[in-house]
Please model this.
Amino acid sequence: MYVCNCNGLNRRAVDQAIADGARSPGAIFRELDCKAQCGKCVGEMRGLITACRHLDAKGPAPCHDHVHAAPAHYLLAAE
Model:
């Protein structure tokens, strides 16, 4: 599944960036050597980051669970 169509970022790449320490959409883009384009993916990325933080608080668990953020009703800045 693609998280960012503009940059061709799939869920696996975004999950790996989060697992490597990215804690904001901007950090994910930097980790993956690209920049936010239209911003439609930012809400999804924030949801994935939040889900990973929640799992981290409960103990070791992969950040790759199928979690879908609520769709954003407006565009958000990358940071």
Notes: The chain has three helices and two strands. Strands lie at 2-4, 9-10. The chain has a mean pLDDT of 83.
